[in-house]
Every structure is written in structure tokens, then in C-alpha cells.
Amino acid sequence: MIKFGTGGWRAVIGYDFICDNIRLVAAGILALAKEENKTGKPIVIGYDRRFLSESAAKWVAEVLAAGGIEVWFLNRSAPTPLIMHTVKDKGLHYGIEITASHNPSSYNGIKLFVDEGRDAPLEVTEKLEQLIEKTTTVDFADFNDAVDEGKIIYLQNPFNKFIDDIIDLLDMKALRDRGLRVLFDTMHGSGAYPLQVILHTARCTVDTINLNKDAYFGGQMPAPSEKTLANLSNMVIRGGYDFGIAMDGDGDRLGIVDKNGRYINANEILCMLYYYLVKYKGWKGGVVRNLATTHMLDKIAESFGEKCYEVPVGFKYISSKIDEEDAVLGGESSGGLTVRGHIHGKDSVYAASLFAEMVSVTGKSPTELVDELESVYGKHTMVEDNLVFAPERKSEINNILMVEKKLPEFGIEIKKVNYEDGCKVCFEDDSFVICRFSGTEPLLRIFAESSDGVAAQKYIADFKSFLNI
Fold it and tell me: Which residue, of 114, 197, 231, 335, has the greatest Cβ tally within 10 A?
């Protein structure tokens, strides 16, 4: 069965991610457009640099073209934020990106975006799943014939407006005056081109590594983490760069390495950018985080008379809450964020550019900015573990946590328990632990935050022992 999780439909290549299933998804999107009376506008299709992505994009285009919907197709790989921006900028009803984002190289998938370039909400993906299940036959055109007939149109200069809109949001003078030296690990992904253009326009010196296309992502997970960025860290130190930047496979997750080789995690990036926009640029408004993201954001917001809003995992909840509360930015500990006034989804191209602006304007290194935050708001250390379990145990684990609502003996007073999305236990000292099933992989994820990393590790160990995993 084809199921859409928090980041679209993802499946193992050659097992479920095969031509027939890809065309089924396309037929479902076609049926959805017809049911919602949204066939009068083109659907834009992009793809990342994973194995089979370009072919899959063409298979989707062939089905939509056969169904009478004009397709806008990119003739090169593109990051997910570009497709979201195109849907928003051109007033389209739908956009599609072929990607499995940060998943292992054996995966690929399909992300669907709806009006205003938003991630398709749950009610849309549930309807789509039902339509896919009802589909018995799939018609499709020949790709080249559809191009010749004008049913599939190659977009000309698709990056221009996306890049120009980001430049308009930046303090380009501060960037030019600073003259940063940056090392960019593209992680073999599709976000390389637009960020290079922006930073070069800002007169930054930018060197790149892992720029080539590699379906195996150099043998690593295509996601920025302390482990995957170890080589970037060493090269930043040796090369005397101001900092290093890395993005995941489809350009919606960001990683930073400071000049001293220190890995700056996603929680720290979120806190730094919110603090910068409010304190240094004078922006007004709260901040949005999912329930597995640092509570330092709560303290920063409170110190400026603002509020931090907690939402379930899934970026669609973050973008909706930003709009609802006119929040400054929103993000998640896995590395994605967006800023008010930009697109309604994760964009590491803009986030990385804004980070460079922050370093330029403040004159402080990322480490110095983290130290400044910790001196005011205290230390917040988050640790996480991804647990593999036997598939037949999923219902048992879910029953223990979500039905019987049993908890380990943590040895510390519990303040509250939240069951909105998994099981989140908050303690009286403002530390927390959350245990939830991944929405993109067959894993049980546990996140814990405390002022003491040892205490956070103990929360995870308590849960692992309790669940016998």
C-alpha cells in the first residue's frame, strides 16, 4: 500500500519505488486535481539527484500529460524549496518533487505541494491514498511526444525568481563588506547551485566539496550531522574558513561547522537565527517549533515578551502556525526551518544565506553566538537515538505508550505528559524526553533534552530498557 508520511511517500527503490507504483501515485494526483476542480493550471515537477529521480519525474509527467494537465518540467535537478517557491510565486495548485530527502540512498519518494506551495496536509494525503487505492488502470503519454505537443513544457531559468527573492530579503551590503570565506559541502545534493549564486553575488569566497552526482551519497547518509560532517569540519580548520555549510539531498535541511571545527546543531541554528532576527534586526513575533525541538526557543521568546508555539512533527504544522500567529520563524531539530515572508516550507538555501548575514552583521563566530545564548538562557543539550524494532512489535509498543500510557521510572518528578504526537514527558526542571514512531522510516525515535547531557542520555536509556529494545 502507498502511504504518505510526514515528508511525502517514501519507499525502497526496486521494492516499492518502482515504475508501476510511481505511475499509480501520479494517477492519484491526477484524480485529486479533477475531484478538487484544479486542473486548469500547470503542475510543476522537480527532482533531486538520487538514483531514478529524473526517470520517476518523467513517468509522473507522462501520466499527468495524458490526463490533460499541462506539466512544467525542470531540465535539471532542483532542491525542494525551489518547487515550493514556484507553486507559491506562480499561483499554482500543485507541485511535485521526486526525492526521499535525508533517507538512505536505497530510498526515493514523492513530495506533493498544494496551494501557496505548502506541504500537502493530512486531509489531502489521506484523500490521495484513497484515490490511489481505487485506481485500476493508468494512462500515460510518451514523454518526448508530449513535449513536442506542448503538453510538457521545460521551464526556462527556473532558479532566477527564487534566487532574486532570497537576495531581496538579505542585507547584501553587510555580506559584501564582510567578505566571508565559506566551505560548502553539497553532500551530492540538489541545493548547490542557488546557494553558490547567492553567496558569490554577496562577494563571499565559496569553495565546494562533494559537488558531483553520486547515487550513494559518498557512502553516507545524505543528511548533515556531526558524524557526516566530520570531513567538512577538518577541512574548515585546515583551510582557515569562517565556517562550513552543508545541506541534505534535496536542500531543505541545514548543517553548520564553525571555524574551530565545532559542529553547530539544528537546535543551535534555530536559536541563533531567532535571536538574531529579534535582537539585532528588531523583528517582532513569536517562534514555532515541533515537540521534539529545543526548549531554549521558549526561553528566548519569553525574554523578548513573545511566545513559543509547540506543534506536532511535520513541517506543514510549523508553516501553518507561523501564518496563524505571524511568528518570526519556525523549525525542527532535524535541521529544517523557514522564516516569515519566505516560502511555507523548509529552505536551507535561504537559511544558510541568512546565517551568513548573521555572522557578517554581528561580527561574531557561530561558537561565540552559541556561548552568548548559553550565558543568558542556560545550556540545553539534546541527544537522540533511532531504534530499530521487529515490525510485529509496533502495535505492542504503541499500545504500551499510547493506549495503556505506561511510563518508565525516571527517578525525577514529572511535570506533564503530552500524547499529541508520540509520548512526550516533561520534567519539573524543564528537561524532557519524547518517544515517537518515525513518519518516514521504520524506526522509533527518542529525543531527550536537559542541561546535562548525561541526564538526557539516562532518559533514553530508561525508555529503551522499559520497552526492551
Answer: 335
Q: Are strands 308-311 and 287-290 parallel, antiparallel or unpaired?
A: parallel
Which alpha helices (DSSP H) does 118-264 contain, by range? Answer: 122-134, 143-148, 160-169, 172-178, 192-201, 230-239
- Residue among 321, 291, 336, 308 nearest 84 (CA): 336
Angstrom distance (rounded) from CA 344 to CA 340: 8
pLDDT per position in the chain (469 positions), as tens? 899 987 899 999 999 999 999 999 999 999 999 999 999 999 999 999 999 999 999 999 999 999 999 999 999 999 999 999 999 999 999 999 999 998 999 999 999 999 999 999 999 999 999 999 999 999 999 999 999 999 999 999 999 999 999 999 999 999 999 999 999 999 999 999 999 999 999 999 999 999 999 999 999 999 999 999 999 999 999 999 999 999 999 999 999 999 999 999 999 999 999 999 999 999 999 999 999 999 999 999 999 999 999 999 889 899 999 999 999 999 999 888 999 999 999 999 999 999 999 999 999 999 999 999 999 999 999 999 998 888 889 999 999 999 999 999 999 999 999 999 999 999 999 999 999 998 777 889 999 999 989 999 999 999 999 999 8
CA distances in angstroms from 424 to 297, 300, 445, listed in the order given: 17, 21, 12
Q: How far is CA 80 from its chain centroid? A: 9
Query: What is d(CA 430, CA 419) in angstroms, rounded to the nearest whole number?
Result: 17
Query: 467: closest CA among 372, 389, 397?
Result: 397
In order of 163, 295, 304, 322, the CA distances from 307 in angstroms are 31, 12, 9, 12
d(CA 39, CA 27): 13
The grid coordinates listed for 400 are: 504500551
CB 149 within 8 A of CB 61: no
Of 10, 131, 173, the closest CA to residue 123 belongs to: 131
Question: Are 17 and 107 a contacting pair, CB within 8 Å?
Answer: yes
